[in-house]
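Progress narrative, work stream C.
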Amino acid sequence: MLNALARHSFVAILLAVIVEELGIPMPIPTDIMIVYAGANRPMSQLALLFVLLTVASAIGASGLYAIIRRGGRPLVDRFGRYVHLGPEQLTRSEALLARGGWGGIALGRALPGLRYATVVACGLFKVPYSRFVTAHLAGSSAYIAVFLALGAVFGPEILDRIHPPALAIRLLWLLPLALGLPLLMI
C-alpha cells in the first residue's frame, strides 16, 4: 500500500504532509511517506517533489502557527500546569526562543523531535510571521531533503526490509489513537 502511494500519488503525500503539519496525528508518519516517495525516482521528479513538499509543509505549519497564535496562550495559561507548562517554563522557553532567533527556529524545524514544538512556541510567543516562515522554509527544506535522499539512496533496501503486513497491523492500532486524541481534546 505504501509503495503504491509513494509511486503514484504526489497529491496524497502532499495532503498528508499538510494535515500532519497542522498537528493532526497520522497513522502513517509522513517521514516514512517521504522516504518511500524518494525511492526509485529520477532526479527531475525528486526536485519537483522536494519543492512541492516544502510548500506543503509551509502551508500546514502556517495553519498551526495561526491557530496557536490566535488561541493558544489562553489555553496554555489555563491548562498548562497539567502538562508542566507553568509561568516559569514559559518564561524560560520564550528566552530560549529569543536567544536562538531565526537560526534557532530553522534548527528546531530541521530536528525531528522539535519540529512541532518549534511551531507551537513561535505561535505562543508571537514570533513575527515573516521570521517564522522564512526560518521554517530553511529548516524544513533541509529535513525534507534528508528524507528524500534517504529514499533515493536506500529506498530499495528499505522497501525490502520493512514488512508491509506487519507494519499495517501495527498502524491499525494507531488509527484509534489518531482519531481518539482529537475527540478527547474536544
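Work stream C, second folded protein:
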Amino acid sequence: MSQPRIVLVDDHTLFRKGLAELLERDGAVKVVAMTGMPSGVTVLLDEHQPDVLILDLNMPGEDGINLMQQLKATGYAMPILILTVSEAEEDLARALRGGANGYLLKSMEPDEVVEAIQRAVKGETVVAPAMTAKLVNLLDNKASSADSLLNSLTHREREILAHLAKGESNKAIARQLDISYDTVKLHVRHILAKLNLSSRVEAAVFAVEHRLGPGFDGKK
C-alpha cells in the first residue's frame, strides 16, 4: 500500500509536531502539511490533495465537527478523522452523525493511529478501541429508536412503507392495495412525519435497512 498523505489540524503546536514525527517514524504515512489555524485548512487541502484529513475536536474559535461538515458540504471528499482527548459518548455520536470517517483518541499509540489512517483510506470507519463499548451502545440505541419509530406506524402505514421499499409509485401502491391515490399520499405524508424523514427516497432506504421489503407481512 502506498503512503497515505495526511494533513493534520491541531492548535497545540507541540502535540501537532510530535504527532507528525511519530506518525512518519516508520514511513507508513506522510504528513504533507499541518496547521494550528483551522481557517486556513482549505488552502492546504487544495495545495496538497491529501488522502486523509485529521482534525482536532476542540480548537479556539472552531469546532472540528462543524469544520468537517463545512468541508464535506463544499465538496471535499477525503476521509476525515476526528482526533481528540474526549471520550464522551455524545462527542462520538456527534462526530459520526456529522460524517466523520473515524474517531481517534490522543491517548492511542502511534501505530494504532497509523493503522486507523490506513483503514480509513480503504473506506472503513475507524473508532479508538477505548470507544468501542460506547459505539456499541450508540448502535443499540439507534436500533431501539428505529424500533420505536416503526412501532408508531399503523399496520397500513407499514404496509405502504414496504411498497416504498420496492420503489413503487403512489399510483402503483394505490392499485395494489385498492385504495385511492390521495389516501396513499396522505399515508406517505404521515409515514415521513412519524419517521422524521424528508422524502419517500429516505423512507425507502429506511424500509430496506429494516427489512420491510418483498414478503412483508405486516410484522417486523
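Residues 152-209 form a domain with the Arc Repressor Mutant, subunit A fold (CATH 1.10.10.10). No further action is required on this item.
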